Amino acid sequence: MAGSMSGLELADQLHREKPDLKVIVLSGYSIDIAGGSKETINRVGGVFLPKPCPTRTLLETVRKCLDGGGCDA
Fold this sequence. Notes:
The protein has 3 helices and 2 strands, in the order H-E-H-E-H. The chain is an alpha+beta fold and 73 residues long.
């Protein structure tokens, strides 16, 4: 992500403003290197998918989030 804010920082900020917002974080780095932790992802109500991510996994995760059945991979 461009700029000084990481994607996880952005997700955290958006979650504070809109707690029901679903977040899917994709990164080519491990979650630790990406600047977060599983606790961070859980706190913002999201899911972390490592790249490369199979298209089917991404689509299934998006569908789960949109259906409100939980946003977990």
